[in-house]
Amino acid sequence: MLETISYIPILKTKRAEFNALNQLDTFTKSKIIPLLEIEPVPIDPDTDIPDKTYNEMLNGFERKILSGCDGIPIVFLDGILIEEQFIASTDTYPIENAIIQARNAGFRVIPVTSPTRSVDYKQSISTLVQSEICFRLTTTDLVNPQLITDYIHELQITPEHIDVIIDLRDMLSESDVSSGHSKILALGLINNFSNLQRFRSISLASGSFPIDLSGISLGTYSQTRLEWTLWQALHSSGQLLRNVIYSDYGIQHPDYSRLATRFPSVTASVRYTADSDFLVFRGQVANRYGYEQYGAHSKAIVTHPEYSGNSFSTGDKDIDNYAREYTQYLQDPEGNHKFGSPEVWRRIGQNHHITKVVSQLSNLYGL
């Protein structure tokens, strides 16, 4: 089954991401294995005390993954964001709790781990291995290959049942990618990986989307999709010793960041993936300057040369609908017009992005 997979999108277990996955078409679902990062417990920004226990937060996770990932054959589940200092004495270890629920829902769930995770995390993972595992390896893991070898032996599993993700996270820079330095680094990490040919799959992940939009001015902003540029250079070089699956963080930065206040001032901004770039349509604070800004962004997208068309994905159809709604708003500003919320637009952006990547891999490379 993994032979047909071309893309591993790395997502959080948020409602917007689950909805983005749910609304993918059948072909796109057949080409991906989403890697879902379990969110940390919410923290009260005034007291720095958790609002919930992990058990409370994960209550109903079975229903969420059943709804969000219906039709997706395999899911990677990762507890990398778990904050062990906030695990209550009554909590089941969160990665164990989530995976058991997902498996009870009938999903083929592959646990994600690495040799540098905590003792408690690895102990929990050891009880969850069912003949297959995913190693998500950062440079911290890769500098000590003996740790990887020892961990494989500890889990009593062979490389043929291990999926490896080499995760560069936010290491890529415009200068390193354009100069070829990133390509040389990636080739070294992949081709020199011990027993490279024995592992079930090898993937390369990274993400170059900004950590936030604070440094972006109002209007339209464009930034190169460095992770896509790098993967294309590697794929076309003929220097890789085996096939490498593409993986990225979509329209979000690899690092998880909590909101600083309980009622944040969120700008009406839209993220849209183009052929080679991320486009950001930057607005002002929505609850002060109006949610109709999302409508104006929609109008700008559907008239942009990089717009994929309203039949490309559910997200693109929604953008077209909001653009039409904005036209009506301009004619009758007093009417009951809806332009979505930050959550809706995160769902739209991720749904379009995943569809875009699968389409590019299929049309450009036959994957």
TrEMBL record:
Query: Which top-level group of life is the source organism from?
Result: Bacteria
Q: Which Pfam families does the entry mention?
A: Beta_protein
UniProt xrefs under InterPro entries: Protein_beta (IPR025683)
Kindly provide the name given to this protein in its UniProt entry. Beta protein
Source organism per UniProt: Photorhabdus luminescens
